[in-house]
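Check my protein:
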Amino acid sequence: MSSDKAYVERMLKLHETNKRKMEAVPRTKITDSKILSEFYTPGVAEPCVQIAKNKADVYKYTNKGNIVAVVSDGTAVLGLGDIGPEAGLPVMEGKCMLFKTFADIDAIPIMIDSKDPEDIIKAVKLVSPGLGAINLEDIAAPKCFEIERRLKKELNIPVMHDDQHGTAIVIIAGLINALKLAGKSFKDIKVIFSGAGAAGTAIVKMLLAEGCKNIIVADRAGALYKGRTDNMNAEKEELAKITNPENLKGKLDEIIKGCLLYTSPSPRDLSTSRMPSSACKKKKKKK
């Protein structure tokens, strides 16, 4: 969210003018009654009968394989937090535009008006017969982990949580290039994470897989470490076991000094503009 009033007004006008960002356009034009009767009734009955005999034929006769649902409950939208399904809709529309623009995949936003993981899981399962894949988006941690796990287990179509895997892939790809330029490797760097949510958790696991040894994750209560009890959940406890090898304690501004990489996949008020610069300063050795 910008503090530039002119920019805000311009963006609001842009989205108001272009509120029909996506539309359903038939690839075959219906120009006469013959074509209409072939693609709709009675002609459409023939593929229906075949699919009823063999469900796998749905991929042969329909667009199921090229339709992705972008699913959100609006509880963790970008840096805005829990703003609700209606307020999160513009983001999901934008993601659908990306799918179409860069991959020619037809995507539809599905906003779920419930914060209950069971409701979200049930809703996605009920609409899944018409979908080729599920892209979970902007669902708050820690429930996002359980939702993804359950849907992967209970559905027979691909399920991806973009905030975890999409973000992690981009971060790791950029870091591979940066380390090459710096002449360093993953095992050489100290990494500080501000945020122990969906993105942070996935990035940490990918960093560990790349050979990174010294990672510290911090949330509002400070560094995650083995034995911490304040503001913890199952996912944070798992992170504490596989990170922070020195078991350091303290707030983010205390542990950040001396790290080579600082990344903040977290709410906007968790870190300050001074923190990245202080990360470059090495801690003074105690006399």
